[in-house]
Amino acid sequence: MAATDRGDLTRTAILALLGTVGPLSRTEIARELDLSPATVTQLTKALMAAGMLEELDLQPSRGGRPAQRLGLLGSAGRALGVKVTAEHLVIVEVRLDGDVLGSWETPFDPSSPDALGDLSEAVADVLGQMPPLLGVGVCVPGSVDDQAVGTVNAPTLGWQAMPVGDRLRRRLKLPVLLENDVNALAVAERLYGRGRTHRDFLVLTIGRGVGAAIVADGRVYRGARGGAGEFGHVPVAVDGPLCGCGVYGCLEAVVGAAGLVASARERGLHVTTVDELGALASSDATAREVFTEAGTILGRTTAGLINVVDPEVVVVLGEGTANWPYWQRGFDTAVRHQLMPGRRDIEIEVESWDDTSWAQGAAALVLATPFDTEGAAGEQGRMVRARLIGATP
Amino acid sequence: MAATDRGDLTRTAILALLGTVGPLSRTEIARELDLSPATVTQLTKALMAAGMLEELDLQPSRGGRPAQRLGLLGSAGRALGVKVTAEHLVIVEVRLDGDVLGSWETPFDPSSPDALGDLSEAVADVLGQMPPLLGVGVCVPGSVDDQAVGTVNAPTLGWQAMPVGDRLRRRLKLPVLLENDVNALAVAERLYGRGRTHRDFLVLTIGRGVGAAIVADGRVYRGARGGAGEFGHVPVAVDGPLCGCGVYGCLEAVVGAAGLVASARERGLHVTTVDELGALASSDATAREVFTEAGTILGRTTAGLINVVDPEVVVVLGEGTANWPYWQRGFDTAVRHQLMPGRRDIEIEVESWDDTSWAQGAAALVLATPFDTEGAAGEQGRMVRARLIGATP
DNA sequence: GGGACTAACTTTACCAATAAAGAAAGTGAG
DNA sequence: CTCACTTTCTTTATTGGTAAAGTTAGTCCC
Fold first, then answer.
1. Domain B78-186+356-391 belongs to what architecture?
2. What's the CA–C1' distance between A62 and D6, in Å?
């Protein structure tokens, strides 16, 4: 992009790279960040002079001069990640290398008149306990209009044009990044998961809602108004159940948590949550059938998306993956059945999941900014990078 | 990206910009190409010294120093665009500003043992008649594996791993760019159509097949293996008709040309082509019903895609648009019905279409390379730019 | 007609990154 | 031990582009 306004982007990218994957040689850094060796030599020299990097051991030679590994000196960056739901907040503290240092959970009412104040205070409380960090990432089940400002539209929370970013920044005096929850997961996946080796992939989430994030050419695609990835609202049934979005027959209404429970009750099962349904499935064929059918519908719809987007890998995440073995029967056959020939070998991977995964995604928003070559995170990203350079003694 | 290897990218971008939209002031150029005014001053100075640009009239002042418009001197670039189908080739000659200078059509048999030889000769014949040009763009109904090489997979043509690019380059001694046909249309749209004002849009094509191209952040998204946009193979019916791809119930099998005819005959109409069906529709309600139903299915599926991709505009193109008034009844209501609230205001535009439109898209591949900041077109793109700089006297 | 203002350009100093060429530090074959 | 070769890193000259601070040429208003 620019020649001079990239700020410390490249410098911080080196620090962040070493922070996330551990010591590397100069050549490896160059390869990883798509720089010339000359540049890496220059920048690492500066970083070493500033006391942020040190030379470590020599790698055994592979037929030429042995590689000199470089390692981070001093504290690696840390960030806070916040997941906002209609009932509670989950906050995690994550180190640059992905290690979770701590997690907190508090009840939260997004419809309270001063919801943003409550949110700010909850985060501030956690912050009080710890040394300064790079920034705070927040993910919400909705769309983020202008990422630089952080205006949130989230029907699930009853939020419309909520100035979440602005408010948090004023209270916390830290860079604050906002993003849709599924997109945040995709950022985390790009930083620590399948994205390290793939530039084009899909992240699918199942749980209360159903979502998708599209990673194209290594970047999370946000769409014209930050609303890309509303996979849950692809129509799958002409006269399907009413969805929370007001439309009938959305995928989410059919295979989301509420849809599963409804479908189970229609079959005479007395369950009120997906967890109960999952527990029942080990012994009850009808319960398994509910999952299988959901898997079939999800699989068919996913196949369509794969045909349109042509990813290398699909990663499945979300609370719903707990019951994945039951989904899988239907899903696998449906996907393979509906994929175009030549794409049937696509890898579909279900990754581990726990309660803090969403919040970890949010933290990744901050920890990924040093790699954000396009400067998409804007002003907030620049601030994060400035803190990374400034923090290490 | 790089500092030094961008070649003449910016210089050619200025030439191409003036070629496509006509004379502009330095400030306008800077705005359009996302450069600083200083850079534009420097580069235009060089281009004027080289005799490629001239200063024209002064624009009336808008409160400050009046803008000095700059215009191209000498011949603007021209390119050839080739559309390959199972029956014939359409070739057009297009000037940088989008003007079509000529068009040719010849029968073509892709299954002939020397199909690539036939193709090369057909293009060479046309080339023989004209002064040298920037390059040749070729679009095919299929996917292009490695754009730099130009290896084509196109089931419709019976082509698998066909080295089209390689062969043409050797015969023509010109830069040759290959692309999927719908993606090529999207490039043209980006250069001359809605893309001039929108960075995120969808191109939908209806006709023999059904396709889509996704333009995200101003770039045509090609997917992991160049196979993005296979919208025609999204599943829409559980027990639908068999599609050419070997799967049952694809959108294309239902609302593609063959699907429409089949559906019409099921209803007792004696038609063998969509053209006949279209002619009949003006007087026959059943024929109209066929289109309306197809429009409904297309609309519902498109709404799903819009929900996932969140574009600003959708452009509908293709032979099938001739009957659009009949599709529209079903399409419009289905789309509005299935779109998430807040997206219902999306603009859907049907553009004019003629037999050479596909080939014009192919030519746009070449004419757009000067703007291809990411250098996606690789070596061939660089050659096109070199020719643009070299050609103008 | 003379400031105050504004928009369009230009100059200058500088910066980030590169290519190209070379130095450094090993391996392995004869 | 020496020579050819490989890989890693460094040096140097150069490039493409920028920000910041002019300069130029108008308008508008008194």
1. 2-Layer Sandwich (3.30)
2. 8
